[in-house]
Write a structure and sequence with these properties.
Layout: E1 3-8, H1 14-18, E2 22-27, E3 42-45, H2 53-56, E4 63-66, H3 76-82, E5 85-88, H4 94-107, H5 111-116, E6 120-124, H6 128-139, E7 143-147, H7 162-165, E8 170-173, H8 191-195, E9 202-205, H9 214-221, E10 228-231, H10 242-247, E11 250-251, H11 260-278, E12 296-298, H12 304-315, H13 318-329, H14 334-346, E13 358-361, H15 366-374, E14 378-379
Parallel strand pairs: 1-2, 1-3, 3-4, 4-5, 6-7, 6-8, 8-9, 9-10, 10-11, 12-13, 13-14
Length: 383
């Protein structure tokens, strides 16, 4: 029996992982309409598709899968009322976001050196991704404070108030976007919070654009002593405010979690969930393990900061993503900006993750070998 699947065009390997008994129709997720679902039994989406009663009522869809960690684009109550199964992929892109954060820190001035010398990172949102960021930074010896009012204090390690988080050298935003009281994350950082940040600090948003009031952020960045800002997400995306982008140290088109490894893991998670609900007991389609990635070689890295910076740059150049977005958006019309944003995501280069790679070091310095391990790599190819 053929399983009819409608899938976002940016979800990889759906055809390969769901097997020959799946009929897959690819669609542009942001423009998906009810008419395109026709006889679909499974709908696979990313964060650009709003899934609600208007889209699904009266269709034959039995299961919705989102290849994302966040679910703010999914009306889960609607799915429950319609009797439609659901799964998402929490954690699938966590390491990709972790390495994006490291790349941002390493690319802006001497923030990496400052953190390794005793500086602090404040993390807002301690879900799967926030926890992964904290764990990786702590493994490097970097002090982290976390804030998540939805969790009990005993669920947090080094928990702090919002004010304490905003006093850290680097502030990272990783909450889910919610309007829910009593602690909505929508416009969590407004003019008052942004005013407390200064030029000695770096603010990174790789969660959702509306966690920061973007108008207030632009006004703050035009003032003296403004913080450094790295933005992967934008309140009005796919429209990017070119004025705000011009003031940011780095800007990217919502691709922090877009590593190829993370995308494949998400597709596998969706495949397994669909199979468990619709075809319990059936063996999954066979998969190829793929070609192993060659080891990375560092010939001249002489300090922990240089090892981190060099290894991150071996796998990911955040500055190139920044340049592609600026070239596409600055001086563009709104229509061109929207189209370019989605095109950059659709044609995103295959980005492989650093974690799990073998690394050949030209030194026996145990400090540097420890840094390689802290990044999730295998020094000298050891297993």
């Amino acid at each position: 029996m053929t399983l009819r699947i409608v899938a976002d065009e940016n979800i990889p390997l759906v055809e390969a992982l769901f097997g020959r008994n799946a009929q897959v129709v690819r669609v542009a997720g942001r423009d998906l309409t009810r008419d395109q679902l026709d006889d679909a039994e499974v709908l696979l989406v990313r964060s650009v598709t709003r899934v609600d009663a208007q889209l699904l009522t009266g269709t034959s869809v039995r299961f919705v899968g989102s290849a994302t960690s966040g679910t703010d684009h999914i009306d889960r109550q609607c799915l429950q009322e319609l009797g439609i199964g659901f799964c998402h992929a929490p954690g699938s892109n966590a390491n990709s976001v972790v390495e994006y954060v490291l790349a941002a820190i390493a690319a802006v001035d001497d923030f990496l050196e400052r953190l390794l010398a005793g500086g602090s990172v404040g993390i807002i949102g301690f879900g799967t991704i926030g926890r992964a960021v904290a764990n990786r930074l702590r493994s490097l010896g970097i002090h982290c404070m976390v804030n998540d009012p939805w969790l009990e204090q005993d669920q947090l390690q080094d928990g702090g108030s919002l004010g304490e988080i905003l006093a850290c050298d680097v502030v990272c935003l990783h909450p889910e976007l919610t309007h829910e009281q009593p602690w909505p994350s929508y416009h969590l950082l407004q003019a008052g919070e942004l005013e407390s940040l200064d030029a000695r600090q770096l603010l990174i948003n790789a969660s959702r654009g509306a966690v920061i009031d973007n108008r207030a952020l632009y006004r703050r960045l035009t003032q003296d002593d403004a913080p450094h800002v790295v933005l992967d997400v934008w309140e009005t995306e796919p429209l990017v405010c070119s004025n705000l982008l011009s003031m940011a140290r780095l800007g990217t088109p919502h691709i922090a979690g877009y590593s190829y490894d993370g995308k494949i893991l998400a597709t596998r998670m969706l495949r397994d969930a669909v199979q468990a609900q619709l075809y319990p007991g059936q063996a999954p389609s066979p998969e190829s393990a793929g070609e192993p990635l060659p080891p990375l070689a560092l010939a001249s890295s002489v300090s922990p900061a240089q090892v981190v910076r060099d290894l991150i740059r071996c796998c990911y150049r955040i500055d190139e993503d920044d340049q592609r977005l600026r070239s596409a958006v600055i001086n563009a019309t709104e229509e061109q900006s929207r189209a370019s944003f989605d095109q950059l995501r659709k044609q995103y280069p295959r980005r492989r993750e650093l974690a799990g790679r073998a690394v050949q070091l030209a030194t026996a310095d145990p400090r540097l070998h420890d840094v390689v391990r802290a990044l999730g790599c295998l020094p000298d190819g050891a297993v």
